[in-house]
# Entry
Amino acid sequence: MIFLRACLAAIRLNLAGLRARIWPAAVVVVGVACVVATLLSMLSMTVGLRQTWERAGSPERAIIMPATARQENNGTVSREQAEIIQDLPGIARDARGRAIADRAIVTQLIVRRRDTGGRGFVQLRSFGPEGLALRPEFRIVAGRMFQPGKHELVVGADAPGQFFGVDLGDKVTMPNGLWPVVGVFRSNDDLVQSQLVADTDTVMPVLRKTGYASVTVRLAGEGALAVLTRAITTNPALTLRAERQSDYYNRRSAEFSDLNDALVYGVSGLLGLGALLAAVNILYSAVMARRSEIATMRALGFGAAPVALAVAVEGLLLALAGAVIGAGIAYGLFNGLQHVSNNVAFHLIVSPAMIALGFGWALAIGLLGGVLPAIHAVRLSVVDGLRAT
Amino acid sequence: MKYLPLIWAALTRRKLRTVLTLLSVTAAFTLFGVVMGTDAAFQRMVDVINRSVVVIGARFGGNHLTDAVGRQIAAMPNVAAVSATGGICGYHRDPKNRFCAMMLENAQGWPNAPMNTVQWAQLQARPDGMFISREIAAKQGLKKGDIFNIVIAALPRADGGQAWRFEVLDVLEDTPYWVGGFSFGSYHYYKISRSIADQPKVGWFQAVVKDPAAAEKTAIAIDARFANSATPTEAISERTMRTDDGTAIVNVARVTRRVAAVGLFMILLLTAHGMAQSVRERLGEFAVLKTMGYSDSGVIALLFAEALVPVIGGAALGLGLAALMAERIPKLLPTLYLPEPYLSPAVMAQALFAALVLAFLSVILPALRLKRLDVAAILSGRT
# Structure
């Protein structure tokens, strides 16, 4: 109990003296704030981008592509194969007993980008008759849905902000002429929301495609994917592979997320190291500047532990203050901001989990930065300290 | 010269502080070196692009350009040469082990392929020959004379199979232009291996123009010519294409450059604070120096030199570390074909400049304080 009170008293004394050391303290706070702000702002970008990809996938759906394909358009699913898929087990069926399996064409159209005026690519994807049954997240928010058989398109809500000439009422150049955009859709803020969508059977001959990029199906329930996979692998006519759609998009986003993560943590780590060394340096100076104060406390009867603890706590508190400022800056500047990467619009996210991570880094810097100076403070000779002016 | 012992004494007085300052400056400049080096490497990639190259692809996916399109482009004004090109992508040995190659028709249309006349002749003489770069050879475990297969599902062969047989004609040195390595086969092989119906289908064309300044105009003329044909084209100068595609990805370099600036700012803060602290502690010493006849500027120069040693030392160490890490960085992140950071003379100069500014800014405030120093008051202990 006495020890605890001694600790509290030492900490209070330390913090009371903080006003005199306001500039060194501010340096630690700003240093930590810089680290936390950069970490969170870079993470907000990578996390936001990854979520936009991952939201496109659902564990209740499976995507069927050629066995060797790693993504859509690495080879095609032929019409014959698509017909066979209709009858495979493991696929959910609608009220009329038809398999909820949707054949898609995927291609890129060349458009002008709004940000640079340079060449950009907008993805054109197609839905078949089961497209809407398959995707409950898809809804038209302006205009109307395209009519199958008519040369028309609908556009994702995030595309017109990125590209010229794809907004509602615009006409998009297709191989056989101009197709009007008749509707705008939202799709759970995923990457499809940056794409154009048309009717599969209408767009296929126009683009002279002889096969589909993929067939996406709704799974019948638990274990349906295994059933479907077995049916596909045991059928010699199908050189295909079914993959859970959420796994597909997670895998695809990992291709660039891994890189981004390495970059974010590498850069922030180096910055953090710099801040850590700065904190050590400054807390050291603080201890040196307060030699006589610390010696006086020791002479008054404060033990070594409370004095050391007080120094360490100071480091922690300064780091915490830095974390609050850094996280505040990152949140205020970046959360919810829209960015575009590789023709996909996404929103930057500063989530509570990320803020917690930022605080974790700050605390680690504060703790590691405070330990050495704290030990040093205890080791100082009381007599010399009292003599020092 | 007579200042040197003084500087040394000042630096060794608080060894720990000097070392910590040195280390944090090192961390900042490692970051600086990697970030600016990556930036310089990207810039070099753009700089080495031949300004006279125009790339012509199909405007719409699913449409194929044909041999006839190439012949018409070759006859257009300002076009010096055209080469048909096919891209093949499949796997080698393991379905997870991707292997892509470009199949080239002629040297005139492909000045950016690093092969000499003899090697081009070899490539055209052996239909299934392939030149690969050292990096690809290491990645795929291939050496000169090896015979191997690439299994390609997306490109039907006339024989109905999926395996494309190749022989490594030679392993060539990597160049900065081909980040991630290169593998070149013969377009003739690409053509004759497919069915008669598919043979006229070309992946894309690469044209070389006579006047590079008119490359963009020529691209527009090509598109205009084929706009109403069965196969509309999309022609673009290679330089514009690379810049456009580069900026389509969230500009990593731009973001990290900002981060490097934040890092330097942070280190500046630290060094400035360290200097101020050091001056405060040694006011008496400086007062003695001034009493002995050192001029204001002499004392300030001393201070500047004192700041310069850990800053320049840290900058040198940091850049050295960055140079050591450079080789590993592309291997750490194999998916994005990141170029190896290139510590160009310009980057070095920028680092030196940043270090000087850092040292200068960190001594301004202490220097002003020294200038206004009340020598008598300090020496008599009345601070």
Notes: The CA atoms of residues 158 and 196 of chain B lie 8 Å apart. The mean pLDDT of chain B is 85. Chain B touches chain A through 57 residues (CB under 8 Å). The first strand of chain B starts at residue 53 and ends at 58.
